[in-house]
Amino acid sequence: MPDMLNSRTFRRQFINRFVLIISTLAALLGIVMLVWILGDVVLRGFGVINWNFFTELPVPPGEEGGGLANAIIGTLVMTIVAALMAVPVGVMAGTYLSEFGKHNLFGRLVRSLSDILVSAPSIVVGVFVYLIMVKTMGHFSGWAGSVSLAILMLPVVIRTTEEMLRLVPGEMRESALALGAPYWNMMMNIVFRAAKNGMATGIMLAVARVAGETAPLLFTAMNSPYWMQSMNEPMANLTVTLFNYAMSPYNDWQELAWGAAFLITVSVLCVNIITRLILSSGRSKP
User: Where are the transmembrane segments (predicted)?
Assistant: First the structure.
């Protein structure tokens, strides 16, 4: 009997150590790959960043100078417009799911569709917007690009808002209602204030998700070598420009592609760091 117990203990310890070693090696492999990618992007892209990169238009291959100012502005404009579309709708939908759609059929349907949309390939969203907007209007446009990005942002905002509002204790709602506050007043001044850090985190995560999307913009906004005149025309953006320049045979365009990759990487990294700071500050408050 003691021999059997010792054998079982040895087997459990062996399996535990084996799984621990495999998990550690997998984590180290992921860290090495991440550092490798980031290091390559920084080493090749940082040297390209200069004043001209942010202020000048692209130039034909072989000419000196030039930058990606139009693509930077186009990316910022489309991302902001997409956020203005997705955030209000996502916050209202998340509020409905948290407060009124916990158990009814419509709430379960919206929640399921939102979960499906989170995992939907971005290229499918791009093809969908192409069919309903680009093909209907007869041309690519910044509006179509913003709509495709807004669709990708929407489920993240919805689910984050719902989860953050559910974390607010029910006693806070009941106390406000018992004091005679209208429901809308209770939501605006009590619940939303208590969940504002988590909701802001969800919004920033949604922005970070679409910041590096290329596939939907290939089908909607396409690209342009010129300054943006309006949203109703093809619009330059960093991700499609990066794709085009990286695939080109010209060394100067490939260098600008590395600069675009560096800028996108740093932007997404900054958004994630700010998101974590907001989340940690919310948790540290009593």
Answer: 18-38, 71-97, 109-134, 140-158, 256-279
Sign of CA dihedral 249, 252, 255, 259: negative
228 close to 77: Cβ distance less than 8 angstroms:
yes
Distances (CA, A) of 246 to 39, 257, 259, 265: 18, 5, 11, 15
Q: Is 216 helix (H, G, I), strand (E, B) or coil?
A: helix
Burial (CB count <10 Å: 0-12, 13-18, 19+), residue 255? middle
Note the Cα 275 to chain centre separation in Å.
11
Tokens at 244, concatenated: 């085009």
Give dist(CA 38, CA 49) in Å, integer: 16
d(CA 217, CA 236) in angstroms, rounded, equals 10
pLDDT value at residue 184 = 85
For the whole model, what pTM was predicted? 0.86
